[in-house]
Design brief:
By secondary structure, the protein is an alpha/beta fold. 37% of the residues lie in helices and 14% in strands. The chain has a single domain (2-279), classed as Divalent-metal-dependent TIM barrel enzymes (TIM Barrel, Alpha-Beta Barrel), CATH 3.20.20.150. It has helices spanning 2-5, 22-29, 53-63, 84-104, 121-135, 160-168, 182-187, 195-207, 242-245, 247-250, 271-279, and strands spanning 9-12, 33-36, 68-72, 108-111, 143-147, 176-181, 214-218, 221-222, 233-234, 260-262. Strands 1-2-3-4-5-6-7-10 form an eight-stranded parallel barrel. Strands 8-9 form a two-stranded antiparallel sheet. It is globular, with a radius of gyration of 18 Å. The structure holds zinc ion (ZN) (2 copies). One zinc ion binds at residues 181, 183-184, 231, 233.
Length: 282
């Protein structure tokens, strides 16, 4: 399929087979890229990675021609929060996520900036940046990707302008990029389904964060409407974005080598259908 040979499209995969075996799961779909959680995403604690796992993982990656692996950080890491006690837990857990990525050699670590609750957006942005500066080190290999939000509640990251403000405050800027979630962008009001809207979004990216900072995508359709600020993923082509809505993005050469990870509701049971829908537009 062109969509996996000529684009870097993959999906989120289960680690129930063991992290070291996830490249084999990926190869069943033909993926050259994919995403995993490196630990239970709903818990603070992480079981240590067994010492033999990184080598086995790397061997399996090579044998299955995996180009790029994205890890999704725990949903508990609310970096935008002003609560000191929580922030200390988030710092520790974020450092663990970075260490685990470097241990296995995952290239990308994506996280949701979180919510500023009863503070202001300005404070939320400062909180995210200062926390990232506390946990990102010059010598780490993994690149940390800030995921755009659907704009729900008091979430940080609903515009590229906001994300640019975070990145402006980061010390090691070369360790930070963006993961653009199509469902979230749509929910937060970016209509990239027509030429003018797509160009507006790309121009905003160019004028704020810079196009080279888009280092990953989450490729999801949306159950909810444009600008409704609700984060509900749908199978590709079956939601409000629709298959044609992905056409400009999937055919934009600047992104042919950027990992595009599906996080569609059926997961591994639905990816072959998602891929065959995408295949009709590439
Ligand atoms: Zn996502
Ligand atoms: Zn989402």
């Amino acid at each position: 399929m062109k969509v996996i040979e000529e684009r870097l499209v993959g999906g989120h995969l289960s680690t129930s087979v063991g992290i070291e075996n996830t490249p084999i799961s990926a190869s069943k779909f033909g993926f050259r890229t994919y995403q995993i959680f490196s630990k239970n995403q709903m818990q603070w604690k992480a079981k240590p990675i067994p010492p033999e796992t990184p080598d086995k993982f790397k061997k399996n990656r090579e044998a299955n021609r995996i180009q790029s692996v994205m890890v999704h950080a725990s949903y508990l890491l609310n970096t935008a929060s002003s609560d000191d006690e929580l922030r200390e837990k988030v710092r520790e857990a974020f450092r663990t996520e970075i260490e685990r990525c470097d241990a296995i050699g995952a290239e990308l670590l994506t996280f949701h900036p979180g919510s500023f609750k009863d503070a202001t957006l300005k404070i939320g942005i400062e909180n995210v940046a200062s926390l990232l500066n506390d946990v990102i080190s010059k010598n780490q290999s993994v690149t940390v990707l800030i995921e755009n939000s659907a704009g729900q509640g008091n979430s940080v990251g609903k515009t590229f302008h906001d994300i640019a403000e975070i990145i402006d405050k980061i010390e090691y800027k070369d360790k930070v990029g963006i993961c653009l979630d199509t469902c979230h962008a749509w929910a937060s009001g970016y209509d990239f389904t027509n030429e003018q809207g797509y160009q507006n979004m790309i121009d905003e990216i160019k004028n704020t964060v810079g196009i080279e900072k888009i280092m990953g995508f989450h490729l999801n359709d949306s159950k909810k409407g444009l600008g409704e600020h609700v984060d509900r993923h749908e199978q590709i082509g079956l939601g409000k974005i629709g298959v044609k809505g992905f056409s400009l993005l999937l055919n934009d050469k600047i992104f042919f080598n950027v990992p595009m990870i599906m996080e569609t509701p059926k997961g591994e049971a639905g990816y072959m259908d998602d891929l065959s829908v995408l295949e009709t537009i590439v």
